[in-house]
Amino acid sequence: MSHHRLAARMSVIGASPTAEISNKVRSLRAAGFDVVNLGEGELDFATPEAIADAGVAAIRGGDTKYTAVGGTAKLKAAIVDKFRNENGLVYEPNQVIAGAGAKQLIFNAFFATLEAGDEVVVPAPYWVSYPDMIRLAGGTPVAVPTRREDRWILRPEDLEKAITPRTRWLILNSPNNPTGSLYSAAEVKALTDVLLRHPDVLVMSDDIYEHVLYRGTFATPAAVEPALFDRVLTINGMSKGYSMTGWRLGFAGGPAWLISAMEVLQSQSTAHPSSISQAAAVAGLNGGHPFMEGWLKVLKERRDVMMEMIAATDGLEADEPEGAFYLFADCGGLIGRRTPTGEVLADSLDVATHLLEAAHVGVVHGEAFGTPAHIRFAYAVDTAVLRRACARVSEAVAKLRR
Ligand SMILES: Cc1ncc(COP(=O)(O)O)c(C=O)c1O
């Protein structure tokens, strides 16, 4: 039927692979199975009460009208303060913007800057959405593999080799999804040193997991190398550090020319993020992180549950992550093994599918992150449930035949 015709641009992207896993999880649950979804990148904690209260007060107080496209003056002031106080980054209000999640801001930045054929250097493993967002904007993602023996940190010489005259952006994400790795200031500096030699390349620093950090010190490129300040877009948001995924509130700081272009795009698409979420974000940003210590204690315990399971399971390997709430496990040892019904696990998608079907545990296959032979466990779920899931994974793996 000709009215079912979609725009050609739709053919360059697919639905998020993590959403696919979630769909399968939902249908198994609907069929009555106890499924543990370790596929979704979301904290299970409630939004802190003071922040939720600020949202409710916004609704009751009539903060329910259109606002400025890039965020209210109050929110912009809170974002400016956050960057100054937590990161040593001094932005003017016209150099910051709020959007409906970090995701929308990343999309808008690519959409505003990429021409056909422009390249974006994306260290792999990467967050699943980067390559599709780049493609949708007409650009070309250039995946540069990182290595487990380097703690998944991009080597400066690999960055140097990946840069061409068409390179428009480098995207960095620390603490990292899916590896949990943190770039030290020295590791960031080694990369910004390369970029000093390439004045046309912009840097997108996705700092969304900044506060979900077990050890080490967070470092962000615009602060590590002030000479790059004018070409770094620093992305952050409320989703992970404040357990506010559903509120859809992200923010960014960067050069005014880029921020204003992102604002124009936003004005003709989604407009401003919800006025209610903005009011809640003001309370969150101005209120600091009194809840974080408690959250990290719980998350650390869960990380340890995961690490114990990995250590006890023949065929899975991983190193202890420094931050975020993911474990990126090497499952190369399982590939080639047979399931009890005789099917051979040929790749990490087969491993993930088998764990879902046999252990009723949802994980995401490494191919989705550009790194085969791995699977990602997102462990921000109830600790007792996590223990149960880990036991079922071990059991399912033990039943595989060589
Ligand atoms: C690396 C990374 N960046 C950005 C996002 C998007 O966050 P938001 O909810 O603010 O859109 C996520 C969410 O999973 C993420 O993992």
In brief, what are we looking at here?
This protein has two domains: 2-46 and 292-398, Alpha-Beta Complex (Aspartate Aminotransferase, domain 1), CATH 3.90.1150; 63-287, Aspartate Aminotransferase, domain 2 (3-Layer(aba) Sandwich), CATH 3.40.640.
Give an account of the 3D structure.
The model has no long low-confidence stretch (mean pLDDT 96). This protein folds into two domains: 2-46 and 292-398, Aspartate Aminotransferase, domain 1 (Alpha-Beta Complex); 63-287, Aspartate Aminotransferase, domain 2 (3-Layer(aba) Sandwich), CATH 3.40.640.10. Helix 6 runs parallel beside helix 7 (185-196). It is of the alpha/beta class and 402 residues long. The strands form three sheets. The protein has a seven-stranded mixed beta sheet, with helices on both faces. Strands 9-12-11 form a three-stranded antiparallel beta sheet. It has a two-stranded parallel sheet with strand order 1-10. The protein is globular. Helix 7 links the parallel strand 5 (167-173) and strand 6. 39% of the residues lie in helices and 13% in strands. It has helices at residues 17-30, 49-60, 73-87, 102-113, 129-136, 156-162, 185-196, 221-224, 256-267, 275-287, 292-312, 348-359, 383-398; strands at residues 36-37, 96-99, 119-124, 140-145, 167-173, 202-206, 232-237, 250-253, 326-330, 361-362, 364-365, 374-378. Bound molecules: pyridoxal-5'-phosphate (PLP). Pyridoxal-5'-phosphate (PLP) binds at residues 41, 101-103, 127, 173, 177, 206, 208, 237, 239, 245, 250.
